[in-house]
Design brief:
By secondary structure, the chain is α/β, with parallel strands linked by helices. The protein has 12 helices and 8 strands. The strands form 2 sheets. Strands 6-5-4-7-8 form a 5-stranded mixed sheet, sandwiched between helices. A 3-stranded antiparallel sheet has the order 1-2-3, with no helix packed on it. It is elongated, with a radius of gyration of 22 Å. The structure holds zinc ion (ZN). The site of zinc ion has 8 residues, from loops.
């Protein structure tokens, strides 16, 4: 099977039932043949009737989904696969309501499913951004309410390496000291140019060495001055805002980092023809996230 550039219709065709999904999970997990997760033996019997595998050495019985997020799931695997391709395909993200309608599951199931896929999409690499880097900040959520003068908007710092990766980080506040920590965690020492707008945050947030590489653009006058602009990080912000306004409606502060990771993961994989396969691999490698962990210190998800 060719799993390059998988779209919804191909996933529906190739993974129409759970047996096909299991075969794919098996091929991704054990490309060189099944290995017992208990004793690493390669002598494995199939118990076809029960979709189980049996280790000939230690007699451990397991399924292809053992130790993965798919283990003990009550949802058919093909529904997981469809939700995954939908989340990979949609640039602005998918709301739990849309998944609920598309899969014909309850809202709670759809919400939980989206969160687990989103959680698996987290980038595992922590390589720092170098070259030409754009930094900008934006504020999301917290609709203005007359009786609540203090806004509860959340700060998001966007950092983008030109022609490279994007990071979006939920900052506690927009103070220079907070932004400095975020910059140092994400921007490498080999950075050549740092581009920001004329916000007063940056002169204070940047180190001495970084300041020598700092170029600013005055947004009240122009959006770009030659090569100096922050347009690529701003276009990512506009996608994020459309996602929040149009798709997710209301993002709880607790879940904002996961939504930001999902957006970045999709953005950074925009040219990856194996995005669907790679997301399934991440799901296989991610242990299950309990519903009660996701909803701790929070009321029921808003419908
Ligand atoms: Zn074994």
């Amino acid at each position: 099977m060719d799993d390059k550039n998988m779209n919804l219709s191909e996933v529906m065709k190739d993974f129409a039932d759970d047996a096909k999904c299991r075969a794919y999970i098996e091929a991704l997990r054990w490309p060189d043949g099944i290995v017992c997760p208990h004793c690493q033996s390669k002598k494995i019997y199939r118990i076809v009737k029960r979709d189980q595998l049996l280790c000939a050495s230690c007699e451990y019985q397991f399924s292809v989904t053992v130790n993965s997020i798919f283990h003990d799931t009550h949802l058919p695997l093909w529904k997981w696969f469809i939700a995954t391709v939908l989340l990979c395909e949609s640039k602005k993200g998918m709301s739990a309501c849309q998944i609920q309608r598309s899969l014909g599951v309850s809202y709670k199931t759809a919400w939980y499913l989206c969160h687990r896929i989103r959680n698996a999409m987290q980038e595992s690499t922590t390589t720092k951004l170098e070259g030409t880097v754009e930094i900008d900040e934006t504020y999301v959520g917290g609709r203005k309410r007359r009786w609540r003068p203090k806004s509860v908007k959340k700060v998001v710092i966007g950092i983008r390496q030109r022609n490279g990766d994007l990071r979006m980080i939920h900052a506690e506040d927009a103070k220079s000291s907070t932004v400095r920590e975020i910059i140092n965690a994400n921007v490498g020492s080999q950075v050549e140019v740092i581009m920001t707008d004329e916000s007063q945050i940056y002169p204070w947030a940047l180190s001495k060495i970084q300041k020598n590489k700092h170029r600013t653009i005055n947004h009240s006058k122009q959006y770009a001055h030659g090569d100096v602009h922050t347009n690529t990080v701003e276009s990512a912000f506009s996608l994020l805002k459309r996602g929040i306004v149009g798709t997710w409606h209301k993002v709880d502060a607790k879940h904002l980092p996961a939504y930001l990771d999902e957006m970045c993961f999709r953005f950074n994989n925009r040219k990856n023809p194996y995005l669907f396969r790679d997301t399934i691999i991440k799901l296989i490698q991610t242990p299950n996230l309990e519903y009660k962990e996701l909803t701790a210190q929070q009321a029921e998800p808003a419908a």
